[in-house]
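Q: Structure tokens for this one, please.
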Amino acid sequence: MRTQFQSFCTAVAFIFFASLGLCADEAQGLISNRLADVLSALEQSEVIKAHPEIVITKDSQSLVIAYHVRDWPNNQNKRLDGSPAKELSTVRGPFQDGFLMTVEFSKISFEPEKEWGTRRFSRLILEPIFPDLRYDQSAIIPRSNWKTYGCEATRARVTTRVTLDYTQFTDLKLLGEVFVPVASLCARKPNDIDPILVSGGLSPSKQFAVVVYTDKVAEELSEPEDDAVFLMDARTQKRIGRLEEVDAGGGGWGRTSSNVSAHWSPDSKWLAVTFRVGRMMHSFVLYSITGHHASPITLPDASTHPKGKVFDYLTTNANPGESFGEWISKSEFVIVEYGLRPKEANQEFDFSKFGLGNFDGELEEVYRLTKDGKWKLKDIRVPKSDRN
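A: Here is the predicted structure, written as tokens:
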């Protein structure tokens, strides 16, 4: 029977990263890749080469690193009524100076980070890996110490649980050396920043995402890229490039994480980005997505449509702007111009002459993609709520 002095001491660390709507097969592929990375890092480490008695096993979800491990009787072998079970099971764990480390990946549903118990392990030395942790702190490593992969595309997550089992006789120096390759691959670095998916940012193809890397108000913007907006490869979580024509600064208003919204065409070939430029003002840019390149598109001016002459009779109020309305189809969309009003000399002008009866400060412009791949202004109209 295992003694009290040989009882397990378990430290559990959770690494959460977004799955970006991955299906089961894609999630398993991502898990397999992460396991392969950890296994490769371990196999290439000098400590594993120097200790052939350390055994590493792998299945579809986890890696197990074992050093001087055996099967122990499970002290919890009891029936619901408290009587001993007829068939006793065993639990695997270290003996003498051994340890057992398990790195397990799995897809889970989103839930808030749990408050773990206050168990403290004064002998587990993690300072070389997590400098902010001290001997007298809980060995449950907070989520903030681990990298996050992906962004908030869905409320699903893939989690990694790292479990360290050891005894009072465990060679903690050796355990720490084995743990270093895992932590080096998965632990958050001081400058690591997680991408934040903007509203509507994930493309229908799940291939691209529009992201920012800060969640700040205007007064907190201090670095050159604090207000930057990026196109990211949603499958690899790598930046494709900055969308130079837009920014998340909000003209001094709002937060970088909410000042931008994305609107993808159904076929993911076109991207419209609406961004705040003032307290009540917005603008937008249309991009063509070809391969991994985003090219800004200049749309035809309103003067290219017969109804465009209406703008000769209009001016703007204190908060004008334009924002993307909606995709009608993969080859047709609507933008909204607001903050419009008649010029002083045209207060009594009859806008029904342009088919714009009930005009009330906003106009919609409908664009259609032609066969030669160019956008054409199809119509100018009042918003549906203002139509007769």
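A few notes: The radius of gyration is 29 Å. The CA atoms of residues 162 and 288 lie 43 Å apart.
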